[in-house]
Design brief:
This protein is α+β, with helices and mostly antiparallel strands and 260 residues long. It is built from eight helices and eight strands, in the order αβββαβααβαβαββαα. The protein folds into two domains: 152 residues, Glutaredoxin, CATH 3.40.30.10; 38 residues, no CATH class. It has an eight-stranded mixed β-sheet with strand order 1-8-7-4-5-6-2-3. The protein starts with 23 loop residues before the first helix and ends with a helix.
Length: 260
Amino acid sequence: MSTLADTEANGRQPAMQTPPVVSAEAWQAAHAQLLVKEKAQSRARDALAAERRRMPWTAVEKSYAFEGPAGRASLPALFEGRRQLIVYRAFFEPGVFGWPDHACRGCSMVADQVAHLAHLNARDTTLVFVSRAPQADIARLKARMGWEIPWFTLTDGFDADFGVDEWHGTNVFYRDGDRVYRTYFVNNRGDEQMGGTWNYLDITPLGRQEVWEHSPPGYPQTPTYKWWNWHDNYAAETAPDKTWVEVSDAGEAAFRAQGQ
């Protein structure tokens, strides 16, 4: 059987060695075998997220100031009244490749894949980006790229204090009244997977806040799936829709019956 890519006539490009083509039955058996490992990975990921929720916190003792579209803002103000805050340090400033037309290519890819923020907000969580570029440049970049992420300008040593002065990274904070605590930090390979609602919630101290999660006693939890909503409907719908409850119950029962 030939490969999908034959060797070029000049011989410089090696042939692509593809997997074998098998019957539907053999493919299904291979898929089932791989699925065992994938489910083990999912459970390990859930266990790791549960461990994150039990990490110790450290109090943020210094005051930090940022510039935003509405002017100067403190770190507590970035929470927008919510309990959890995720801060991604994006590199958009003089000296960064792409300036002034673009932010760092890697940071821009992260921004491109950020899910709709309404779903994070519904779980008492705010996501913001911070850079050293002035607000006028940030506003111009956001308009050009179609980004709606709240994006603030760094004005002090926040980036150095939280390990993101030389490389991108994501810090997580929790607010209890006027007190702010740092609860988690991820960068490098762990940071590249950020963007999806679930990945963000899994690094927060409260997690996804669903009843199946193994969280410390007293943590907020709601029935699985029931809080999910259209991103433009959270404010209008304060209680789970009856039809959605029935649909999600049926779906959950089906995959639980399959041992997933």
